[in-house]
Amino acid sequence: MHELPRTLGALRASRFSEDRIATRTVKDEIRQNLICKLQKKEPLFPGIVGFEETVVPHIVNALLSRHNFILLGLRGQAKTRIIRMLATLLDEKLPYVAGCEIRDNPYQPLCRQCQNLIEEKGDDTPIAWLTRSHRYVEKLATPDVTIADMIGDIDPIKAARRGRDISDELTVHYGLLPRANRGIFAINELPDLAGKIQVGLFNIMQEGDVQIKGYPVRLPLDVMLVFTANPEDYTARGKIITPLKDRIGSEIRTHYPITVEHGMAITGQEAWTGRPSPAAARVPPYISEVVEHLAFLAREDKRVDKRSGVSQRLPISVLENVISNAERRALHAGEDLAVPRVMDIYAALPSVTGKLELEYEGELKGGDAVARELIRAAVGKVYSSYFEGVNVSTIVQWFEMGGSLRLDESANSATMVKELGKIQGLMEKTGALGLGSNEPDGVRVSAAEFLLEGLYAHRRISRNEERGFVAEERRRADPEDPPKKQRRQFQ
């Protein structure tokens, strides 16, 4: 690999010629690299699932059009991850005048300091190199951000140290936007930015320059601007002022996973499941499905605030907590395999309630009660997909004849298999879940409990804290049970 040029003279003699570096803007650079990726059919946003046919084409169109754009979407829709991945469309290396605060182009310097340096040293002007990560600048918008933070201000200390008049251009302290020159400048949660600060972005978006305080200085910066926002925040915390919206080239809407399969793929990718532990985790597919259905049902539930949304972080956090509860149980029992059960999903309530913004009706019922009902509904949906058409009447009859079973979380898997084996036909019916004949005890216990929880969700049997699973006729008033008119909602 050839060593990168370190002086302006060596740069002129290299492949980084003036024609290539001086005339191409950041947006042109991103466009050209994007075209190469499209021609080679390379993935543009690896790890982003479910946006291939919806969001990604709009982003590609915006980049090909050289637009500044904004991603609008509720929380937990991968907006920040997407804009950070835009840096992969930049060149691997880019030269700039060494020591320059705004990463000046060696062939077309903007700041007075670099102009003076090149005039003095000529081809001996030192050159440094920017990587992709150096060329991505991100700012979380907050109400306390000032024009000085974003654009720049007079620096009296710099003037005093250099012995210059305070009106000298060399006494300017540059803000974040000039320091993002020749790169991507991203602002998260744009509505939180004060209106007067949003006004400060006008010139750079339309005329391509900024002015520092009252200085007669124009800086025609080369920068691509990208924003994110939650559309519901426009009225809750602030708004994007109309002139700024008008200058944003493309407004792109993100969304939650459209299918449960997409949601499971995202959760499986993001959740910390491959953890080192004496008890290896093995998550059954039906448990993952219940966790994902929990998020989907919460997004549809009238007791949950639709404007706030239910982040994809909910199933990710729940699955991690579910595995942790199974791990804790396995470690306590001295087992080397941790297999999550439905009871572990109920144990993960702390990772559910904090992520649900409830409407008035939900607040009256309470976060815990709403979350428990959602879990029960999710179990019912997944149970139907596995056991539709399976005759479970012998299991129900066992409870109707006076049988009851209380699952002891502290008992080891072998003991639980013996207890569950007393229920006629139970272990045999778990074959509908695709289990083999030589499955570990932990897997068999998880499957049997899921079947029982499914019967409970469909009101074929009941469950209470004192006796565990019992016949439906013995059921006392249970606040977790849905109203009678909802009995068939899972079928």
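Above is the first protein from milestone M3; the second protein from the same milestone is given next.
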Amino acid sequence: MTYDLFIGDRLFSSWSLRGWLMLHKFDLPYRTHAVDLYGTGMAEQMATLAPARLVPALRTPEGEVIGETLAIAETLAERHPEAGLWPGDATARSRARWLCAEMTAGFAALRGTCPMQIAHVETDFKSSDAVLADLARIETLWSFARERAGDGPWLFGTCSLADVFYAPVCARIVGHGLPVSRNAERYCLTTLDDPAFRQWRAAALEKTYTPFPYPPVGGTKSWPV
């Protein structure tokens, strides 16, 4: 029983990263299929997945196509309760769902002005007031999650879908050198140093782009992990 996951360019596609982590981190069987976000054939490449029109898209072993990451997440959690995609504690589970829902619907300034790129760290990016407000809200939610975390390094102690959904947020924070607290920075580096994220990034760096779709606003430095 193997899932087919359709993803965009690994270096930039934050939503694709979420879809891939759901399967990879929780040891679910999958095959990946690349869709070229920066070419002209995306619609044709996704034609067999209609009405899904964006990545990631998931095809179940039975042939059902599922779009949108929240729907993919809930479907996988329902089909594989033993995998522990959501926290086991009921209160933590409700909070994790809250964090994921707010992430998909919010943080427009962060998502709009700080596209995910995992090639380098920008050193001269200036955060707008709107981006700073998004960062403050994210830190509030992360602290809220940590109230149920126990001793583990992840938002709810052990890794869950909440960490999957915020992994690209961590990449945005680090990749643009955004100002966050030491606790938030530590969590971001934990995410980026996780073997799954490192595997994703290694595959992403196999492809080069000329020109780079998201040129830095100033100087850059090396990725931290």
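Note on the second protein: The mean pLDDT is 96.
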